[in-house]
Write a structure and sequence with these properties.
CATH class of the largest domain: Alpha Beta
Strand order of the largest sheet: 9-12-13-14-15-16
Number of strands: 16
Structural class: alpha/beta
Number of helices: 16
Largest sheet: 6 strands, parallel
Distance between the termini: 58 Å
Oligomer: single chain
Helix content: 25-40%
CATH architecture of the largest domain: Alpha-Beta Horseshoe
Shape: globular
């Protein structure tokens, strides 16, 4: 049996490679490799380091995707931004497909609920090459909207939830050989991700837990992961040491939603070991909980090589902080920054996320939050609000008539929502963006 794993194109107003790696698909690849006789083929159209690299990367591995401006769907015509396809040129994709043998099953992963045009473009190109091959869609999209996805995407079947067990069942059902159906209920029994499929192994993704114990009204983490599951410190250390010995990476990228929760048994144990044995860099693009950053934690972050520190702050507004499960206060944010500075970080090396575009959010609330961050002397990043299906905020927006009663996945696009549904006029949106850039430049030049 021959299986093709695909990370599809993105269609959006904006996209940037903040170490974006299809970690779920890498785990799927490892499951298939370890427990079946299938021959695995891999194409990641968002891999900027393959064949004909696109725009130049930054020194730490981040960078712009190759992009081509495309026509907007009708609903987006009013948005004053270009709509683009992000990923390798389509001709390069077709060349890769033409070099492949006939494939039995294609597994495609998904991420944002509004990247449906990118998935459909990917499927269209796959159908041109493989007329009868079964196409299976997994990941976030079929998990959050299992009853609506067929309206938008034509595939043979969909995988809701974790896919490790289900891909084995699908392969076996299609006359492939499965050596074993392992017990994968324990996260520590998952085989390490199949990083051999990455063309550049300098920057490897790392997951130390699944899910999040908080219940923020705008976040789908607890919908995608029914419970918060942590890997053992021993299992994490084993993976880091194994991958370091095998690939000699420069950095690991932390993909956790709740990296510092229960830090005594996971984070502190793991990175006490790491700092003693390895010369590595670590990055936290998903954001970490500022409440957990006491002095001991800050010192461990500094001593073990963390270079990108992004704190989840959200806002100075008390109502917005309630949406965040009250997981942070202004004083806790101040303490976190002070502790990081005491540990050795410069303030201009510390970054934070501010929620932007929530329905009903006032311009003064955003400006107050930005000015607070400016006073702290750290770098702000606007975290555009996206109404994620099934979340409390999404359901409330449906009830209030802000979003369609029948799910329209195009409405979940973060740029569309801030321009058309947030209630903020365009001049205020542009002012907030300009102010964020101004503060960032001022902090960076201190």
């Amino acid at each position: 049996m021959k299986v093709l794993l695909i990370n599809p194109y993105i269609y959006d107003f904006t996209a940037f490679d903040l170490w974006l790696r299809p970690l779920g698909l890498l785990y799927i690849g490892s499951i298939i490799k370890n427990y079946t006789n299938a021959e695995i083929f891999w194409i990641d159209v968002l891999d900027r380091f393959q064949d004909n690299p696109g725009p130049k990367s930054k020194k730490d591995g981040r960078g712009k995707f190759h992009r081509e401006i495309v026509d907007k769907p009708e609903i987006y015509k009013i948005i004053p931004r270009n709509y683009s396809r992000y990923g390798i040129p389509a001709d390069n994709f077709m060349e890769k497909l033409d070099k492949l043998p006939e494939i039995d099953i294609i597994f495609i992963t998904t991420l944002m609920t509004y990247w449906i045009d990118g998935i459909n473009f990917t499927i269209k190109k796959l159908r041109e090459r493989f007329k009868k091959t079964k196409i299976i869609i997994g990941g976030i999209l079929p998990t959050l909207v299992p009853f609506y996805i067929k309206k938008y995407i034509e595939a043979d079947s969909f995988i809701k939830g974790y896919g490790e067990k289900k891909v084995l069942q699908i392969i076996e059902h299609n006359n492939g050989t499965v050596y074993k159906h392992p017990d994968l209920s324990d996260i520590n029994k998952l085989p390490f991700p199949a990083y051999e499929f990455l063309s550049n192994k300098k920057y490897l993704p790392l997951l130390t837990s699944r899910g999040c114990p908080f219940n923020c009204t705008y976040c789908a983490s607890n919908l995608l992961n029914k419970r918060f599951i942590e890997r053992s410190s021993e299992n994490i250390i084993e993976e880091i040491l194994y991958m370091y010995d095998k690939y000699k990476p420069e950095s690991f990228i932390i993909f956790d939603d709740a990296f510092l929760v229960n830090k005594e048994k996971r984070f502190l144990r793991v990175f006490n070991k790491v700092k003693q044995n390895l010369n590595l860099k670590f990055h936290t693009p998903n954001g970490i909980h500022a409440r957990e950053v006491d002095l001991k934690t800050a010192e461990m972050l500094y001593e073990s090589g963390f270079k990108t520190i992004r704190l989840s702050f959200e806002s100075t507004n008390s109502e917005i902080l309630k949406k965040s499960s009250s997981k942070i206060t202004i004083n806790e944010m101040i303490n976190a920054v002070n502790n990081l500075e005491k540990a050795g970080f410069k303030r201009k090396e510390i970054e934070c996320y501010i929620l932007f575009g929530i329905y009903g959010q006032r311009i003064n609330d955003i400006i107050n939050s930005l000015n607070f961050v400016k006073k702290l002397g750290i770098i702000p990043h606007l975290s555009y609000f996206s109404p994620v299906p099934q979340t409390k905020d999404f359901l409330n927006l449906q009830k209030s008539g802000i979003l369609s009663k029948k799910i329209n996945l195009y409405e979940t696009n973060k740029i569309y929502f801030v321009y058309e549904k947030s209630g903020l006029p365009i001049n205020e949106i542009e002012h907030v963006k300009d102010l964020t850039i101004e503060i960032t430049h001022r902090v960076q030049n201190q």
